[in-house]
Amino acid sequence: MVEKFISRGFKGRARETDTTRRERVPPGQFETNEFPVLSAGPTPRTSLERWDFSIYGDITEDLKWTWNEFQQLPRETVTVDIHCVTKWTKLDTVWTGVSVDTLLDDIDLDAQSDVGYLMAFCDGGYTTNLPLDDVRGGKAWIAFEYNRQPLAPEHGGPARLLVPHLYFWKSAKWVRGFKLVRENRPGFWESAGYHNYGDPWKEQRYAGD
Amino acid sequence: MALQLKWQIGTAVEIRQETPSVKSLIIDLPDWTTHLAGQHVDVRLTAEDGYQAQRSYSIASAPEDKYLMLTVERIGDGEVSPYLTDVLEVGYQVELRGPIGGYFVWNAADMQDNGPPLLLVAGGSGIAPLMAMVRHRANSNRRVPTKLLYSSRSYDDIIYREELDRLVASDSSLRVLHSLTRQQPENWIGYGRRIDREMLAESAWPPDEKPLAYICGPTALVETVANHLLELGYEPERIKTERFGPTGG
Question: How far off is chain A from B239, nearest CA to CA, in Å?
Fold first, then answer.
């Protein structure tokens, strides 16, 4: 019914002529060079002395790292494209952090195959849910540097989750740990009308998309 | 499984020039289900060659209003806002879907007359979702004590100025405090600077009244105000923020 709709008089911007670049922008998104800030409440401030990262839940042994312990873990620098559900896409962003694979290394997840999801939790009370498969296999990091500088608080510093293949609300700012769970329950935005999974290439913005 | 938010086609029935750079589009949507004050819609523009561009706009009308109002600031290097403010005319159709967002919302039915007061802080076109709350509050007869602290560049940049004046004149439990950051008219009695800690300490509700705060505007304003409110003793979970970045256009 609405397929043929044309916005009268709309021409739009000059189309990106670089097709390889254009193909990296998912449907409904536009490319920006800026780095907009979005969050639902005030920016929390946690001192590095009090910061830790923990993994607990339906697993036999809990894990916890202090900031200093976390900094001793092997780090990676990755260049990725990020896609915010508010429509901006930013190409070639550079992040440094610890791969989630490294953090999950000590947990025998194959022996607990019914634990298929995680809830990331954060300072400020934010949560977001993800299938474990989406944070394993080199797909997710706990990032503490952006452009090789310490991550600014308004962008999620001291550390945020980075899951670039999903809409950026899944890349939880101020992340403090994962609860590994059997059931996929909705997190903060997932309970407020947003999609439970959030694949930008399928334009899964809102519940029902 | 939730139902998908469907794209709908509405018709612009009125366009108001609010300020030199801001227009309000009043849109008739035959299939609209009601929204909550604070929610937004996605607008999608389609060119003849199939090219599309989408942006989000807050709803400025109250849930009770007959038509949907979107208030759009023209962003110079944007592509959706220049169309909406320069090209779109009354009678044109516009495609959108919504309402979206379940957190930055305010519902008068959840409030008590003598309950905690409401603080609204706006910068520029960030007033739009807060205006939906002010209008909804006026329609509801729920006299939650409310203060709106509203920062604009100049007197002529104040969006909804006359309507706010009228609402204040008829409602002693609503106060609107303006600050003009760049230029103030002669004999201006409001504030004349960016919102700072001193201004909030002086004008905002004291923290022991457990106010509920909504802040909307450019990132710098939202960060500053939220941080100051925290320092003044506001509870973090009672401060809700929404940002209008430069790429909001």
Answer: 6
Of B2, B42, B226, the CB nearest to A207: B2
The pLDDT tens digits of the residues spanning A10-43 come to 998 888 788 889 899 999 999 988 887 888 899 9
**B84–chain A nearest CA distance, Å:** 9
Per-window interface: B 144-183 vs A, CB < 8 A: none
Q: What is the pLDDT of residues A145-187, one digit of tens each?
A: 999 999 999 999 999 999 999 999 999 999 999 999 999 999 9
Type and span of the H or E element at A180: strand A175-181
Please report whether residue B156 resides in a domain. Answer: yes
Distance (Å, rounded) from C-alpha B195 to C-alpha B208?
21
Q: Does residue B3 lie within any of the structural domains?
A: no
Gap between the Cα atoms of B249 and B151, Å rounded: 19
pLDDT, tens only, B191-247? 999 999 999 999 999 999 999 999 999 989 999 999 999 999 999 999 999 987 544
Go through B214-235 and write b for each residue having 16 or more CB atoms within 10 A of its CB, e for each that does not: bbbbbbebbbbbbbbbbeeebe
3.30.559.30, 3.90.420.10, 2.30.40.10, 3.90.780.10: which CATH number matches A25-33+44-202? 3.90.420.10
Picking from B100, B121, B149, the residue at the C-terminal end of a domain is B100
Does the predicted TM-score (pTM) go above 0.80? Answer: yes
Q: What is the DSSP letter of B84?
A: I
Task: Please state whether the peptide bond connecting residue A26 to the residue before it is cis, i.e. omega within 30 degrees of 0.
Answer: no
CATH for B35: 2.40.30.10
Could you tell me which chain B residue has the CA closest to the CA of A15? B51
